[in-house]
UniProtKB/TrEMBL annotation:
GO terms for molecular function: alkaline phosphatase activity; metal ion binding. InterPro entries: Alkaline_phosphatase_core_sf, Alkaline_phosphatase_prok, Phosphodiest/P_Trfase. It comes from Corallococcus llansteffanensis. The keyword Phosphoprotein applies. This is Alkaline phosphatase family protein. The active site is at T87 (phosphothreonine intermediate).
Length: 535
């Protein structure tokens, strides 16, 4: 072997040995973990049906709903398992990972037996609003479980939790007890003394310079042929706010009228970005923050015009564009690799009832009163009716010496005989472990200290409305109200569609896994398809 060959062999051997040593040193070392998000954004589109996302997805732009649908973990069978599919209930469920039977938010409004009055889910006289609008105060004191935001602030004091929405109940439930909530007040965004003694400077600044849309018109934003698929624009079942009319274009009046147009979503998301910038959400070294966004516009338009109206479709298309702009701004402000986005809805929406599809609450109360009068003598038997609960007057039962259980059975039988009623349950039946009919859904909704003596459920497609008259409504235990979109997109998540049944109560535990905080009270379970990738 020549000297040159010997040198080549020697260097080759050393090179191989060096490579082997390097491999040996790295073989037992795990690869770097995926980047953890510094900002978790939880978007709740109030009143968005799963069916509408699927129906119109090809008409969405690439940066809004489709960004999540095509780039995230999408759950096609997310359904609320309870009966009272209302706004406050849904936001409380999404935020806590528990159901109404545990978190105690049974409706937007219920009858408080101790107060002797109907109360809002966020009513707190000791926490007045900071905008001087007067009226009742607002806080999360009626929410009986900690939220995801509460868990984050308990485990990571350097974190920040902000919740923004047009509705106070949406903002409050998502902020929880320890976060900070902002909602639309008298003339801009506000909060209450539960959260702050004065409005932060960025809120006052945004309110002073907010876009003014009064005097402009809401026009269709897509080709007229798309809307024509829904039938005529002028539908007699639509019940728009005063001054709007039933057909496009809709002149936007002064005041809060813009809330019933897509401009409400535009302004909310712009305000959310102002909070990100002012509070440096997701950009403070080492901090992990949570921003909840309650997009109430779809719900408000659906109530006014119905979810199958031209207005509802145009709103969805415009919300998609507004969401795309919002997510793009977060990419610039925080970094796409540092933001995790979850999107769902608090409930769906029933189609505007046709003739015979509306059950007036007065018919229900009259049937109850008439049946009890006939059985026990004339009295005022009913204390209150807040969908879906009827509350009897204990004084009336005592005065006539009537056993409560007997009176409930008599009343339930009379109401169940009404056209449009699917099932009536007494409080005992509502808490029974019985899967027949709609009992299981009612049980998941039932929190005994607040729920009524009787629970009345309408037939699918029938609107039971004791308190309001709207073109579209929700609150029933049926597909159109229970089935909602659910998608999560973030660093390292594999885009995929998942058909297995899941619950919106699973979202908070899933996000808790990303935030690395405990959520022991949650009854939902983390979605493995949407939790952080393994190291």
């Amino acid at each position: 072997m020549t000297p040159m060959i010997r040198r080549c062999v020697r260097w080759g051997t050393l090179a191989v040995l060096g490579l082997g040593l390097a491999c040996a040193r790295t073989a037992g070392v795990p690869p770097s973990p995926p980047v953890r998000p510094s900002l978790v954004v939880f978007v709740v589109v109030d009143g968005l049906r799963y069916a509408d996302v699927e129906r119109w997805r090809e008409h969405f732009g690439p940066g809004g709903f489709r960004r999540l649908l095509e780039g995230g973990a999408v759950f096609d069978a997310a359904r609320y398992p309870y009966a009272t599919t209302q706004t406050c209930v849904g936001h409380a469920t999404l935020a806590t990972g528990t159901l109404p039977e545990r978190h105690g938010i049974i409706a937007n409004t219920w009858y408080d037996r101790e107060a002797g009055a109907k109360v809002s889910c966020v009513l707190d006289a000791e926490s007045p609003s900071l905008d001087g609008s007067g009226g009742a105060g607002v806080s999360p004191k009626r929410l009986g479980m900690p939220t995801l935001g509460d868990a984050l602030l308990g485990a990571r004091p350097s974190s920040q939790v902000f919740s923004v929405a047009l509705k106070d109940r949406a903002a409050v439930m998502m902020a929880g007890h320890r976060g900070t909530a902002f909602w639309w007040g008298k003339d801009g965004f506000t909060t209450s003394r539960h959260y702050a003694q004065a409005l932060p400077e960025f809120v006052a600044t945004w309110n002073a310079g907010r876009p003014q849309v009064a005097g402009t018109s809401w026009e269709r934003s897509a080709d007229p042929s798309l809307y024509a698929q829904l039938g005529p624009d002028d539908d007699v079942h639509e019940l728009p706010p005063q001054g709007f009319g039933r057909v496009f274009p809709h002149p936007i009046p002064p005041g809060d009228g813009f809330l019933y147009t897509p401009s409400g979503a535009d302004q909310l998301l712009d305000f959310g970005l102002a909070a990100v910038r002012a509070e440096h959400l997701g950009t403070r070294p080492g901090a992990v923050d949570l921003l909840a966004v309650g997009l109430s516009t779809v719900d408000m338009v659906n109530h006014a015009y119905g979810p199958d109206s031209h207005e509802a479709l145009d709103t969805l298309l415009r919300v998609d564009r507004a969401l795309a702009g919002f997510l793009s701004a977060l990419d610039r402000e925080v970094g796409a690799e540092r933001v995790l986005v979850a999107l769902s809805a608090d409930h769906g929406m029933g189609t505007a009832p046709q003739p015979g599809g509306r059950l007036d609450g007065a018919r229900v109360t009259q049937a109850l009163e008439a049946a009890l009068d006939a059985a026990y003598g004339e009295e005022t038997w009913l204390q209150a009716f807040t969908t879906p609960y009827l509350y009897l007057r204990p004084e009336a039962l005592a005065a006539r010496g009537v056993r409560r259980e007997e009176a409930l059975a008599v009343g339930a039988k009379a109401i169940a005989a009404l056209p449009g009623v699917a099932q009536v349950l007494t409080d005992t039946e509502a808490q029974a472990h019985d899967s027949r009919g709609l009992t299981a859904a009612v049980r998941a909704s039932y929190f005994a200290p607040r729920a009524g003596d009787l629970t009345v459920l309408p037939v699918s497609g029938v609107l039971l409305a004791p308190d309001a008259d709207c073109a579209g409504w929700h609150g029933a235990p049926y597909e159109y109200d229970q089935h909602v979109p659910l998608m999560v997109a973030g660093p390292g998540l594999k885009p995929a569609r998942h058909a297995r049944p899941v619950s919106p109560a699973d979202v908070a535990p899933t996000l808790a896994a990303w935030l690395q905080v405990p959520l022991p009270e949650a009854t939902g379970t983390p979605l493995p398809e949407a939790t952080p990738p393994a190291r």
